[in-house]
Amino acid sequence: MNGLLKDYRKHKYLYYMIFPVVLYYFVFHYVPMYGALIAFKDFRIAEGFINSPWVGFKHFISFFDSYYFWRLLKNTLILNLYMLVFSFPAPIIFALLINEIVGSRFKRVVQTVTYLPHFISLIVVCGMITQFLARDGIMTDLLVWLGMDRQVLLAHPQYFRAIYVISDIWQGVGWGSIIYLAAIMGINPELYEASRMDGANRWRQIFHITLPGITPIIVILFILKIGNMLDVGFEKIILLYNPNTYVTADVISTFVYRKGLQSFEFSYATAIGVFQAVINFILLIAANRFSKQISENSLW
Amino acid sequence: MMSSLHTIRKSKGEHIFHGMNTLFMTAMIVITLYPFIYVVFSSVSDSRLLLAQTGILWAPLGFTLDAYTMVFKNPNIVSGYLNTLFIVGMGTILNLVMTSLGAYVLSRKGVAWTRHIMLWIILTMFFSGGLIPMYLLVNNWLHLGNTLFALIVPGLISTWNLIILRTSFAAIPESLIESARIDGAQDLTILLRVVIPLSLPVMAVMVLFYGVGHWNSWFGAMIYLRDRELFPLQLILREILIQNNTNYMAGNASAEDVEAVGESIKYATIIVATLPILFVYPFLQKYFVKGVMIGSIKE
To answer: Looking at residues B104-119, what average pLDDT do you find?
Structure first.
């Protein structure tokens, strides 16, 4: 207690300055965590938090038994798989290619242009997607020219994942490459010179110097992605899906949204949210441990 | 084997690769830009010609600013713009204040508890209560529902941005801080007179990240706001673009007028909502790449 008082006197203003920050995190990040306890209750607004009865795991069991559980899990995992296989590597490859551009002015133009879509709002991007894929939209015209029947792709569940992933790459590949380019620039140039003297061509250099050099950041970002798996893509899916495509598009987060904020089944939706958080946490730990074993890189 | 003293001659394979790479990058530029170009062309085109045409547009079809006139006459667009400007302005200022305070304190060396607090903060990146508890907190327990502050307060600090700013503040030489202290400055003064002026590029990055984040956000508005007069621009946009709600856009115009400009209205709305971003982007672009790199490399 004495030490605290002495510290306070020495750093008085730091205490004042950090107070609003700590208050913010407490109210808007830790209180909701406590609020997640309503997953174990039959929460009713009228009765409030304290008076709503405890029901244990009832909502969890109800979710696991629900008609949609396997479909939601499957859709969430498959969408994630597509993202990890296509969306995740795209900025890495793009960064490697940008790094190979010879003219510095052209390089800057490419970067400036490709970063742009990241700053466009999701509503606008999905608006463009909806317009371009409409019955007479430009993208539909192009696909018809390539032999497809004229149809509204967004109305058919089998195309949803492709539309989602491709548009995600379009919007994110430029911006995503920044962090990898930063890492590439951090690689010691002497390594390249030394390899030149050993006769390595550019390909060899990429595989044996550049890639290993950025592997740490790749691993960290990959582990973080895995730790968010069950939350995949929720705002964009809400903007693009419709009841016709629920069968492939509906994921756990969108189901939580509908159950919680449209049907107002608060406890049920919160329980699913808790389920997501727990699984995400397990995946995070597992991915981190696995990565520690096969390489020296990990998040912690 | 080539001697390293000679100029290194590129092999034929490398030449082909560079050629293909240049082609690929050019294609990327086209693929990135063309959708915007198409939207711009369509927004000034005659709607009837648009509907009749298929395929790529090389130029606007006809030229008319009718779509834009209708967009600006729409009272929802105007109120949407005003609401968004308020949210971006007020929100970004509060974001900067909170994040700077946090970044400054947490970057001070020799203060034992800063590490502790940092850990608790980073923990929030991995755990959260979820959508529903947050909704109940903001709407029911804090009574922020149906106010613009529901869109600003829950997101006051982005932990990601806090980390970037903290790294940047920590890089400022301790000697400068010390000499300010010797001159009698307290921490707040040091933050305002020494640390921030030396961190302007990163602060520009913060303005960009938070500002664009506010400009583009819509989901909070969708779940917390009930009065149409409070809707930010993106939410109005959503009604027009995604839910195809161009009916009420009529305002004072007749039904035929609205139908005639129907298609190009959507495109004009996209441009009107995105123009500020497109304006600001080139100016701040040179700062943020540097800022992101500072944040990521030193971590």
So the answer is: 91
